[in-house]
Design a protein that fits this description.
The protein contains seven helices and nine strands; from the N terminus they run H-E-H-E-E-E-H-E-H-E-E-H-E-H-E-H. It is an alpha/beta fold.
């Protein structure tokens, strides 16, 4: 029966990096709102505002770290055999190249390594449209390098999202948006669409192995409408 099928369906556990940013915030809400997820951990430097008012807040686990440099040393037992690590981190404008490289490259590689050593089934990351390790634009170059290095980590399943210019972003402001304002061919997408796509994809991949997907802006939009 449907009832016994639901009972036997294992609930999922996910870890979110970048939960204070626009996409990460929307993703946490998506996961908390889905009955397929039992636990949603957010790794953050300070407890998040207003989470105690969210539907599904009892599933939220706030893992506060002094610095995201600590991702490298988080023990494998912490998220042992969880279902997904989601990385939605991104630097804010004006923090300098060194910080940008640390957040948008190093922390992505570090969190992918955390997923690998913890036996997590999926690493899911937000990149950018036109990400290319050979790009002359520093922003797109670093994004491309992050994709390449994360691929080499070899997590069981990998999903890379390349959204265009994010609309309705009211939480923060990133370098990519500044570039987007003078790269005319960037497609537009809603933050909520990226978050929904990430949830749908992770639920599908819960029982998969060896899947590597790169989602374009258009593919993210399509995926976000599926359940």
């Amino acid at each position: 029966s449907n009832c016994s099928k639901r009972m036997s369906e294992r609930k999922l556990k996910g870890v979110v990096f970048g939960a204070s940013g626009a996409i990460g915030n929307a993703l946490v809400r998506e996961l908390l709102g889905s009955d397929k997820w039992a636990t949603v951990a957010v790794v953050t430097r300070r407890p998040l505002d207003n989470w105690d008012t969210l539907p599904g807040k009892e599933k939220l686990q706030q893992d506060v770290v002094g610095s995201l440099d600590e991702i490298q040393t988080l023990p494998a037992e912490k998220y042992h055999h969880w279902d997904a690590v989601f990385n939605c981190l991104g630097s804010r404008v004006g923090t300098g190249k060194e910080n940008f490289r640390k957040v948008d490259l190093q922390y992505f590689v570090d969190s992918a390594n955390l997923a690998k050593r913890s036996g997590v089934n999926l690493f899911s990351m937000v990149s950018s449209q036109s990400a290319n390790a050979k790009s002359m634009f520093y922003y797109l170059k670093i994004k491309g390098q992050a994709e390449e290095e994360v691929r080499q980590v070899g997590v069981n399943n990998l999903s890379i999202y390349r959204p265009g210019l994010l609309l309705e972003r009211n939480r923060d402001f990133r370098l990519g948006e500044v570039i987007g304002s003078w790269i005319p061919f960037l497609n537009k997408i809603k933050v909520s669409e990226v978050a929904a796509a990430m949830r749908v994809d992770a639920e599908r991949k819960a029982t998969l192995s060896g899947a590597v997907d790169l989602y374009t802006n258009a593919e993210i939009k399509t995926l976000s409408t599926q359940h």
